[in-house]
Write a structure and sequence with these properties.
binds glycine; 13 helices; binds adenosine monophosphate; Dna Ligase, domain 1; 9-stranded antiparallel beta sheet; 5-stranded parallel beta sheet; 29% strand; 4 domains; Rossmann fold; alpha+beta; D-amino Acid Aminotransferase, Chain A, domain 1
Length: 421
Amino acid sequence: MNILILGSGGREHALAWAVMQNPKCDKLIVAPGNAGIAQIADCASIDINDGATVVEFVARNNVDFVIIGPEAPLAAGVGDRLREAGVLVFGPSKAAAELEASKAFTKEICDACDAPTAAYGHFTDAAAAKAYVQANGAPIVVKADGLAAGKGVIIAETVAQAEHAIDDMFSGEFGAAGAEVVIEEFMEGEEASFFILCDGESVLPIGTAQDHKRVGDGDTGPNTGGMGAYSPAPVLTDAIAQRALDEIIRPTMAEMAKRGTPYQGVLYAGLMIKDGAPRLVEYNVRFGDPECQVLMMRLGAQVLDLLQAAAEGRLDEAQVNWADDHALTVVLAANGYPGSYEKGSVIGGLDRFEGDSKNMVFHAGTAMRDEGIVAVGGRVLNVTARGETLSQARERAYSMVDGIDWPEGFCRSDIGWRALT
Ligand code: AMP
Ligand code: GLY
């Protein structure tokens, strides 16, 4: 089978690493890829958000199966163009990707299927939004409706902060994403991520993880795309996962199918857990990054069979072989991230790691230049290890971090703290 993966992050490196271990994979191309991916697959620099370009590339390269990594091509309808051309695709349609692209859409789906989530209001003007905030008080959460690269959510501690956030959003700070605003009840509890494969009808949970969104140790500083993750997430017990499936995931899937927009792909449910009960924070229509890296380490080669079963509508026959160990990943980011940072610094020491099923350095923002592997993004490497216990996985990951020579980068030193204390 000839396979094309779309994307260029640590998520896609981990997907590529797992997929190519499956004997069914004859040829693997990743577009556009990065320096780490180029060591294991062909990379092609094409515009992955343009459906016609991807369809043409697939035909020219005899690709049998396309796996879409990031949300942008999904929201741009690249999956639809491929399916129209008769290509097997893993990833939702543009209509189903609304579950990530519009927060108001997701809240309305939750209402329609009675899935537990925060109470909310949806507004297109500042005066009505402010009246809602005044009526409900703080803390309260103000969200730009559309895709804002994880930056469109403000947790307001006071009514004044919420009003300020509302003014910012309606004055265009988040571009088109902020033209509509969702205001939500602040939910207390512990957050965890639940990953479920869906084929339009059946669902198959494939793992749990916890992310570290803040840039600094002890969950301080600004939000990032994620500074580290581990799997499984101990807070998401089997019983809570079952409740999430019964009360949130399956009702959402049934509602999407009923509306004529069945969901196929991976559903990443952000859950808030309190007193043994899960509530939905948000859906993403893709794997999390860096959560994917820890999931792929634990799933390995079977990932290709599972993604193919989802794409072909055969999930009811599929089974997951669970590893009963733990995986943890530490993100190395460029100094300054998530603010501005320099590009082009050389990363040394990477040739010390050959990589195996227990220890892998996945690349995110890297490129190959004459001087060696250089950093070209904010999040640059994902140092990932497995262990029989979470603390063993963490020790292994940090000892690999110590072997990397990159003074222009940094990482959090406390990945896993919540589960380990
Ligand atoms: P989102 O982009 O919707 O995932 O929001 C980003 C982060 O904000 C989440 O991961 C939560 O940590 C937090 N958050 C979002 N909505 C709420 C809420 N209603 N209550 C508490 N925290 C929230
Ligand atoms: N790590 C969070 C995300 O992928 O959205």
